[in-house]
Amino acid sequence: MTASGNGPLAGVRVVELAGIGPGPFAAMLLGDLGADVVRVDRPGGAGLAIDPAYDLTNRNKRSVLIDLKAKDGAGQVLDLVERADVLIEGYRPGVAERLGVGPDECLARNPRLVYGRMTGWGQQGPLAERAGHDIAYIALTGTLSMIGKADEPPAVPANLVGDYAGGSLYLVIGVLAALQHARTEGGAGQVVDAAIVDGAAHLATMIHGMMAAGGWQDRRGTNLLDGGCPFYGNYETSDGHYMAVGALEQQFYDRFVELRGIKDEVPARKDFARWDELRQAVADRFRTRTRAEWTAVFEDSDACVAPVLSLREAPAHPHLAARGTFVDHDGITQPAPAPRFSATPGAVTRGPAMPGADTAEVARDWGLDLTVPEEDR
Question: Which of 114, 120, 118, 168 is nearest to 140 (CA)?
Fold first, then answer.
């Protein structure tokens, strides 16, 4: 059984040079969409201290074990590349070249290959050779400065904004665009340089426009969408949980204050000088009931209010359950593939690929002579 499903990318072959973070997540997205993703693992693992059986970013993939530092390592990868449509690597600039699997070598073997490069700082620039992590990339682009309360240090948004939004998603967009180009008449392969700093900066395009127009202050916790607005934020309930309020438009705000029972007790929403008073009134009222009680008040309304659920609570929410937003595969509850397609739906067909476990299967399906680990013979 191949890893390829019936998603819109069925028939597309992807080689992923094992790494951690945004590269594996991008390859997982391609696998979720039906691509046949073969992950090239190296002896000793990728360096992430997690049981590979629970590394969900390796679902919908197959794994072969190749030592790129061995005499025939690069040659085996290039054999895969010759039969592939896409390659993804997340090494520091120059590493793939030194290993013999850089863009020049790969495109020489397969001129229509899309060579996707995932880094934090990019392939060029003063910091290109420097180590880094998500938090540094979003710090340098100004993105981190927007997140959190005005009188507190910037809040760390896990690694979602940099690694996955600014990194993985932009790499996938680039790969798919380059793949379309390669498949046009006379099209050729090319290198996609996906730098997290570029993507994280690009995510804030609307904010830069608002700032230029005078509608956004360059300091967090003072603006419409960063918690500075009393009707766009999170409020604690009597049981220590939170409700999220997003009543931006007038009609939604009107319904919000009506259901809160404070319609005649608070200042006008455009009376900016009294926003602190409005925020305090909203906070005080939320603390009078539990999260469940407030959820019941707002659940059938257009007040744009929702309970803040934990990761473990979210899959059981009636709406998410009805849509199948989360699925259970091999006993692990996890987000389902997204987005959705009417004719070629994606699915979780395989659990996390165990390093080297699929070498024999890939060698057969791709018509290759790969070294099979002893345990798979």
Answer: 120
Q: What are phi and psi of 166, to 5 degrees?
A: -80, -20
Beta bridge partners of 333: 328
Which residues are catalytically annotated? Answer: 133, 163
Q: Give 337-377 pLDDT, tens digit per residue.
A: 999 999 999 999 999 999 999 999 999 999 998 875 554 44
Burial 14-29 (b: 16+ CB within 10 A, else e): bbbbbbbbbbbbbbbb
Exposure letters 147-166 (e unless 16+ CB within 10 A, then b): bbeeeeebeebebebbbbbb
Instruction: Report residue 109: phi and psi, to 5°.
Output: -80, -30
Tokens of 156: 């760390």
What is the chain's length? 377
Q: What is the pLDDT of residues 63-110, one digit of tens each?
A: 999 999 999 999 999 999 999 999 999 999 999 999 999 999 999 999
User: Rounded CA gap, 326 and 318, in Å?
Assistant: 11
Torsional sign, CA 68, 55, 373, 83:
negative
State the DSSP string of 116-166. EEEESS-SSSTTTTS---HHHHHHHTTSGGGSS-TTSPPP--TTIIIIIII
Structural contact between residues 348 and 3, judged by C-beta atoms closer than 8 angstroms = no
Cβ neighbour number for residue 315 with a 10 Å cutoff: 17
Residue 184 region by backbone torsions, left for phi larger than 0, else alpha for psi between -120 and 50, else beta = beta
* Dist CA 57 CA 353 (whole Å): 9
pTM > 0.90? yes
